[in-house]
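for the writeup, i need someone to sanity check this before i put it in the appendix. the sequnce is what the collaborator sent (i think, or maybe the updated version? ugh). structure was predicted straight from it, no edits. if anything looks off just tell me and ill rerun, i have time this weekend
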Amino acid sequence: MEKNEKKFEDYFKIVKHKLPYWDELPEIDLYMDQVIALMEKYLSFHKTDNSSKIITNSMINNYVKLGIMPAPIKKRYSREHIAYLIIICTLKQALPISDIKDLIELRVKRTSIEETLNFFSDLYDSTFNTVIAIGKKFSKKNSFEDSFLADTALYMAIGSSASKYIASQISEINRKDSIE
């Protein structure tokens, strides 16, 4: 295996991560600071640098005010709240909050937040594995020159941009369908 191909393989072994399922969430209710620490643990892979925050008190309060997630009960957050936050924080990397709200509402109406989180975690894992496989396939088609990793990153970024565009168009169609 060539040097750059080995780098590529090693990289995808390092970044492999998964989202928690309902049964992996704490069974006890948590206070805001505990929720923030837990979210940092679950979603630290989203951080672009050490100073960035996955979530803050004001973000959580805004999600409640916007009706994206239920309000805490006596300043305590349950598994349900954690599930909403995992989904919101993961999707906000690619979608506007209004689309996230619509998608969560549609899914939770059909099932429950428990089933929604489990579905979301499964979907995230399979999508992540698919993206890795596509990246590996792309890398094998291209020569392993010095620009190979940069070209692969560019390919992945373009795929992300295209996926974001398609997701926003589908959300718009869903919004129009729910109005009619």
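Residues 3-175 form one domain. DSSP finds seven helices and no strands in the chain.
thx in advance!!
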